[in-house]
Amino acid sequence: MHLLVIGAAGMVGRKFIEKLATTGALGGKAIAKATLTDVVAPSAPAGAPFACACSANDLSAPGVAETLVAGRPDTIVHLAAIVSGEAEADFEKGYRINLDGTQRLFEAIRAVGDGYRPRLVFTSSIAVFGAPFPDKIGDTFFHTPLTSYGTQKAIGELLLADYSRRGFFDGVAIRLPTIVVRPGKPNKAASGFFSGILREPLAGQEAILPVADDVRHWVASPRAAVHFLEHAAGLDTDGLGARRNLTMPGLSVTVGEMIAALGRVAGPKAVSLIRREPDPVIVKIVAGWPRNFDPERALSLGFKAEPDMDTIIRAHIEDELGGKIGG
Amino acid sequence: MHLLVIGAAGMVGRKFIEKLATTGALGGKAIAKATLTDVVAPSAPAGAPFACACSANDLSAPGVAETLVAGRPDTIVHLAAIVSGEAEADFEKGYRINLDGTQRLFEAIRAVGDGYRPRLVFTSSIAVFGAPFPDKIGDTFFHTPLTSYGTQKAIGELLLADYSRRGFFDGVAIRLPTIVVRPGKPNKAASGFFSGILREPLAGQEAILPVADDVRHWVASPRAAVHFLEHAAGLDTDGLGARRNLTMPGLSVTVGEMIAALGRVAGPKAVSLIRREPDPVIVKIVAGWPRNFDPERALSLGFKAEPDMDTIIRAHIEDELGGKIGG
């Protein structure tokens, strides 16, 4: 089986590839070859039992998508995107990468013809939804994104459903929750603090909390994100019908509950490293974000997320800190 | 006030322009000039109290949208589209006209800059919805189009909302019901019979009914469509917030109820001209169409449709048959 991963150098992409390197398979099929690409060349995972071809590419440039699908990959995982904040700051860049890039990929697959019909997994986002919301957002709630990023993801979902319906590929879009705990340095995403208030104290460092403790959000771990991708790649799509865009399961949790879990797992010293410094800009942005879902369909299709925050924090300690709390 | 109408040669476009020729105003402002365009040059309406510039244009061709908006029209009404059946039969043409054409128009408006922010009215469709449905489709039901046409309209809605949110124009999208009674010759649209079973008997001619009498659908008259456009052009958009895509009101009616109304208005002889000839292809297509809506938002914003089928039939007799039932 030939796998193509676009956006393979990002956090979720890297973890996905590393997992595949340990299992050697995806969707029940052994991987013979993986083509990994991103705007910067991804690294091949250590010890992978399959061949890796890594390259740097801009999916939105003419001809790139055609070259990537020329080898007729059996499964295509499309993770490449400009993040929310950047797509809002640079309107043209966001549409070029997130919309044109996705359209070019879909069109390149269609142009192959000749019965070629790969499985395509596309990472969408809960940013396709915009406030005001019901208490729990169900599977038939409408999409009124409040950002250009969410708009671009919602359009990608519509195109994926239509191209799948027409038989050009066999698509599944998965709307990822906010991923917590993201490893690495703090970034400038407005959602960054959800990871920061756990990651920094677990490493013995101070973290800033810019919103109130009662702010509720929808989160899942990097491990869950990798599972979503693996499960979507192997999913029996006959059961999906025309509705190929799925809200992934997650955990609806308040900031206060996240901090309480940190206390249970890492003790009061870790909690004391969180400094409350309200930021009205972030408070306003976060107020428009989804808080809770009822992802019935994804659950019935076998997608799974963590049952509680303690599990998410322990996974981070195992995966990123070698099992040891710092500080 | 300078008005630009794109798709002005279609049935709804023509009726809209003819109405404006009698009122001389739109959204409470006198029309000084109307630029009317379509793939074939529209005709200027007789006796209009404003200047008309009519031209043939393909909105999807490079540079056309830029030329159309160069005169900085205050209000733009975008009706141009390849219809559902053709967009399904010709995938590339549908995306080129319905998606690329719309994107080119939106981008041309954005490119003007310099504080230019016209009112933009876009005709969407109930084809953005796909079965299975609830009994009544509410304003927050999701979009899962089952045709490429519906996909293209749903994407147009998302772009309209994002470009409006960013301040590039002040957009309103109106999802039209199936328009009944369409004047003119029978066309090949799968929905054509909804008009045909009324129009043909009212003109003394035989009509074919390809579905069962209990088929329910969502309809409004050409008069209502013109009112929707006028009302959308003058709407106070402050009340819309970020949700600029509106399901228009209509009448949920069965084929049997339509025929009963025909009998009340035109007598049993008209009804006897309807020949039942079930067509499994049309039966299947129609089964995926919306049947009923709860268009609360549009109603609260002052959009109005006909209260009953008799009114719709009488309007057709007045507007198209000079008040006289034929045959």
TrEMBL record, chains A, B:
Pfam families: Epimerase
Entry keyword set: Carbohydrate metabolism, NADP
Keyword NADP: yes
Taxonomic superkingdom: Bacteria
Gene3D superfamilies: NAD(P)-binding Rossmann-like Domain, UDP-galactose 4-epimerase, domain 1
CDD domains: Gne_like_SDR_e (cd05238)
InterPro entries: DenD, Epimerase_deHydtase, NAD(P)-bd_dom_sf
Domain NAD-dependent epimerase/dehydratase: 4-219
Matching NCBIfam families: ErythonDh
Protein known as: Nucleoside-diphosphate-sugar epimerase
Organism whose genome encodes this protein: Labrys wisconsinensis
